[in-house]
Amino acid sequence: MDPVPALQEPLEQPLKSVLGPATAKVMAEHLGLHTVGDLLHHYPRRYEERGQLTHLADLPMDEHVTVVAQVADARLHTFASARAPRGKGQRLEVTITDGSGRLQLVFFGNGVHKPHKELLPGTRAMFAGKVSVFNRRLQLAHPAYELLRRDGEEGEETAEAWAGALIPLYPATAKLESWKIGKAVQTVLPSAQEAVDPLPDSLRDGRGLVSLPEALLKIHRPHTKADIADARARLKWDEAFVLQVALARRRRADAQLPAVPRTAGPDGILAAFDDRLPFTLTDGQQKVSAEIFDDLAREHPMHRLLQGEVGSGKTLVALRAMLAVVDAGGQAAMLAPTEVLAQQHHRSVTEMMGELAEGGMLGGADHGTKVVLLTGSMGAAARRRALLDLATGEAGIVIGTHALIEDKVRFHDLGLVVVDEQHRFGVEQRDALRGKGKQPPHLLVMTATPIPRTVAMTVFGDLETSVLDQLPAGRSPIASHVVPAADKPHFLARTWERVREEVAKGHQAYVVCPRIGDEEDGPAKAGKAGGSAEDEAEKRPPLAVLDVAAQLARGPLGGLAVEVLHGRMQPDDKDAVMRRFAAGETDVLVATTVIEVGVNVPNATVMVIMDADRFGVSQLHQLRGRVGRGSAPGLCLLVTEMPEASPARQRLGAVASTLDGFELSRIDLEQRREGDVLGQAQSGARSSLRVLAVIEDEEIITEARQEASAVVAADPELTGLPGLRTALDALVDEERERYLEKG
């Protein structure tokens, strides 16, 4: 993308020149803040009202917190200590209250003198520290604190600063308390007046938004709650609009790249494949296939996201697209994130294609093609053969892992790249594969996790989206239940009885554990004495595949054929285990999440997920999708030791209550927040969303996308909007820009 002249951003001034080198160093190391602009965009997490006390009862364990409270009691204890001068040590215990709960502060040794003089009963202050438990009581040991002056104390300035003001509490760290950040912000706040406004005047005026300098002043130094609302409304628009402009420019640039049109013939390999199918495509599959074929026939590369429910037949749609490209004389590559998944895709594609996958071989179909597998662990001879088939064009389809990206891999005419489970691939990897075509190949990104519309617009905004929301005929419903192993151990016993019952009917089962079991995570942390049931459950080491498999084979599943599968097994061993399970030779497969995506064994009807609370919502939904793939109903049992009232149990309850992946993805996103969804690979530290919530702010994102598209259509290079170009440079930092350019 050609650089466009931008306004000089006054806020690019380094923090060290304003705050001094020591403070600037801590800001950079602990918060990633380097410039005045970075600090001004480090917004308060919440605000304390003068006179309002926080809820101490809700403090999270082991987290660094900031609270505003009043000293109720302070006592200095002297005790015998061999280490202390003259054999006597001192401990100051201060009790603070918020009217609903109490919290103990503890200071030792030389650290007692200052707080003993300052923290007198009735004093109000901000306290920051890490919440721990001692003698079954919550406490902060050696917290940092900042006294809140009473109105009228220490002259006019302090009274004016605190009287009636909202106290901003900033995202902080152990090395950098909220009030230190607040003081630094106050130092640079006058610079906010010089902030370059990225929004076009017409957009800002039309929506009644305050200017950027006013928004920055109001978010850091609000006088009323209305000030905060005005500031947030404006800053949300900045984030949504600037990001959507970047994506709109990317879409426009992509639309101008050349590509070879690929149109399937009426009686080629695609037609022969469709004739072989033992079932009819769903309406959704036919509609999405039509969208893809339209894109493939154009002279510009397709950039399409294919998403859908677990088991909705995305692989079949992707295979038909690959066959259309082979029909048109090109080659197609499918990139999978793991060897297990690459082998599984290769197996299912060759099974679906039958003799059509044996092009050039004895007994192969006349217009068949070779389907080759390429992974990092293949033997030298098989690898050489696969590379030769790709270079000569004899192999029309290749399925592989990141091994496809290596420099040695040459294609005869790469026409389509299908990326499975896109979020597991770095941008550079996808870009390297796309660079192997004579012209940019068409791109189809498949994601197995349904994505809310707003996330698709925000994260995948440079891709057109196709959604498969129908399940193919013959798919069976899946019943899901939470098994509270700690509260009701007999439920766990019943779980293994159900597995035996399904095996007796000729079916198979998966048991999934979070860990392998050869101590790769190191020893687990010991639980604290007197902790809650939730603490105890969290401190216990996660259940491991090797341990659970051994216990089941000796105990409740004795006599059944039990095998293990995990990521650190040799590839040939993994493949052999999957083949035996697919052939029905294994009754129970105890595995890690290597089976999460793409594994298709219709005879497996039960999924038992151990320590289910240690998995994310989307992961659980993916795992559950491995059963109910045949004519027999599926059963998913979520085993947990977390207590009933815990958030983890509520999350499991949500998964058990619905099979709607789009609804679950919303729940998942609300719990994890956007940072995890956008991911570090997709957003640099400075460009991640701060005030925009991609679920709650659907309306803003939708409108920002429309506004951005209109702005870019009218002025692609943004020559008339230098302030917007500046914001693109600042918010869409180099890492994000690279992501967008290569997406």
UniProtKB/TrEMBL annotation:
Region (Disordered): 520-540
GO terms for MF: helicase activity
UniProt keyword list: ATP-binding, DNA damage, DNA recombination, DNA repair, DNA-binding, Helicase, Hydrolase, Isomerase, Nucleotide-binding
Major enzyme class: isomerase
Superkingdom in the source lineage: Bacteria
Residues annotated as domain Helicase ATP-binding: 295-468
Domain (Helicase C-terminal) ranges: 487-670
EC number: 5.6.2.4
Pfam families for this protein: DEAD, Helicase_C, tRNA_anti-codon
Protein family per UniProt: Belongs to the helicase family. RecG subfamily.
Protein name: ATP-dependent DNA helicase RecG
Encoding gene per record: recG
